[in-house]
Amino acid sequence: MNNKILILNHLFWPDKINTARHISELSEELVNRGWDVTALITNRSYVDSSKKFYPKKGVWKGVKYYRIYVPPLNQKKNISRLLTAFWITLNWILLIPFFGKYDAIIIGTNPPFSYLSIPFIRFFKRKSKIFMWAFDLYPEAIFVSSKTNLKFFKKILTPIIKFCYKQLDVIVDIGPCMKSIYEDYNKKVEKVTLPPWSFVEPKSIKDPHKKTRELLFKKSKLTLLYTGTIGNAHEFDLFLDLARYLRLKKASVGFCFAGFGNRFEDLKYQVKPDDTNITFASFVETDRELEERLSSADIMLISLKQSWTGISVPSKYFSALANGKAVLFLGSTKSALSIWTKEYNLGFVLEKDNVQIIGNKLIDISGNMNMISDLKNNSINIYNEKFSKKKICDGWSELIIKTIDN
Fold first, then answer.
1. Cα–Cα distance between 244 and 229 in angstroms, integer?
2. What are 284-324's pLDDT values in tens digits?
3. Distance CA 275, CA 264 (A)
4. Whether residue 351 has pLDDT greater than 80
5. What is the pLDDT of residues 244-272, one digit of tens each?
6. What percent of the chain has pLDDT over 90?
7. Is a pLDDT exceeding 90 seen at residue 384?
8. C-alpha span between 372 and 261 (Å, rounded)
9. Integer Cα distance of 242 and 238 in angstroms
């Protein structure tokens, strides 16, 4: 196979942000399946904007890459992030005529509004099949985060977005709830769901890392862990209600919130001294530490505000399944995570009217750990069958072949 693929994304190796790792690993996996892959990416760290990546061009695990210069703007600030996004998009538009012929072009949704480059890419690469791997939806993410009414801007942007999506051959979303939003923009463009995979994929369920489990959960029989970002898209009030109900019941069930984000301190502020079954931990830097932390938990806590349904699909969900964890999802019943959790019996969906019901189930499980073992085994089996990196990347390769051949 000599077919050539061009991948455009803001982030790439050695950045460790989720979208950087997923787009990098997809590129690597496509090379492993015989594709000739080139990545047009940037030269600056997302986390530390003062840090540059070198060299400007090279080869990483068989993937040829070219880095474009971006200014040292802090990506934690919205205005800086938007300026960076338009800088990258403009560079793509200016550079794309000088890149060779490609059978397929994959555009990531990082930076935000990357789809503005699609009409220009279509003009210069008429014979290429164009795919967009949609991890996030913009401007929807801005609208739900803003405290002001932005309906006027949405009215202006909608026809532009529809025109851009019309130039695509395939939109690859990461959950059915996201697909439904893209349907509102364009019903004719093919849409395929290929979720993100876990970065840690143990071959079997590992025994809990005893030191980490005791550090995070003390002596609790049943352990529930939230790990990763706690930001504008997440909520946790019902998790606290559940923890407090279990504490009043004197249940041996421990909760730990580990990670970072602009709402992490808010969460810590809401936890009172008598919330003795709730602990906190910082972000981990290595896959080994992450694996030890994941092994320490029986159930993973996942949350997404109802207003963010379809706009984002937390990738930590797939890490939980890959490591043989049951999940406790707090979010809309229309979310893909809610649907998958119920359809495949992967855990529980927490709602306002079932806090005590879920609490009583957790009490039963803490008294009979065979019940959690059954849920864990089912989770890893479903992950390997439906969501593994091999499964998703095979799906990508097959989708590209099919689209090119049509």
1. 23
2. 777 788 788 888 999 999 999 999 999 988 888 999 999 99
3. 16
4. yes
5. 999 999 999 999 999 777 788 889 999 99
6. 76
7. yes
8. 30
9. 6
Ordered DSSP codes for 164-224: HHHT-SEEEESSHHHHHHHHHH-SSSEEEE-----S---SSPPPP-HHHHHHHHTT-SEEE
Contact criterion met (CB below 8 Å) for 305 and 338: no
User: For 43-52, 225-234, 314-323, which range has the lowest pLDDT when averaged over its residues?
Assistant: 225-234
> 48-59: b or e for each residue (b if 16 or more CB lie within 10 Å)?
ebeeebeeeeee
Distance CA(210)–CA(221), nearest Å, equals 12
Between CA 52 and CA 67 the distance in angstroms is 10
Residue 131 half-sphere exposure toward CB, CA atoms < 13 A? 24
Euclidean distance between CA atoms 345 and 78, whole angstroms: 38
Please state whether beta strands 129-133 and 36-42 pair in parallel, antiparallel, or not at all (unpaired).
unpaired
The residue among 370, 318, 378 whose CA lies nearest residue 347 is 378
Token pair, residue 335, equals: 């979310």
Distance set, CA 227 to CA 60, 258, 303, 336, 342 (Å): 29, 5, 11, 20, 22
Q: Which residues pair with 258 in a beta bridge?
A: 227, 281
> CB-based contacts of 115: which residues, under 8 Å, 6+ apart?
107, 109, 132, 161, 164, 165
| Nearest residue to 315 via CA among 21, 10, 15, 11 | 21
Half-sphere exposure (Cβ direction) of 234: Cα atoms closer than 13 Å? 23
- Beta-carbon-side half-sphere exposure of residue 401 (alpha carbons within 13 Å): 12
Calculate the alpha carbon distances from 107 to 129, 138, 301 in Å. 11, 14, 31
The SS3 assignment for 228 reads strand
For 33, the token pair is: 């399946």
Q: Which amino acid is at 238?
A: L
Give the whole-angstrom CA distance, residue 121 versus residue 114.
11
- pTM, entire model: 0.89
pLDDT in tens, 185-219: 989 999 999 999 998 898 888 888 899 999 999 99
Residue whose tokens read 């803490």? 366
Does the N-terminal peptide bond of residue 139 adopt cis geometry, omega within 30 degrees of 0? yes
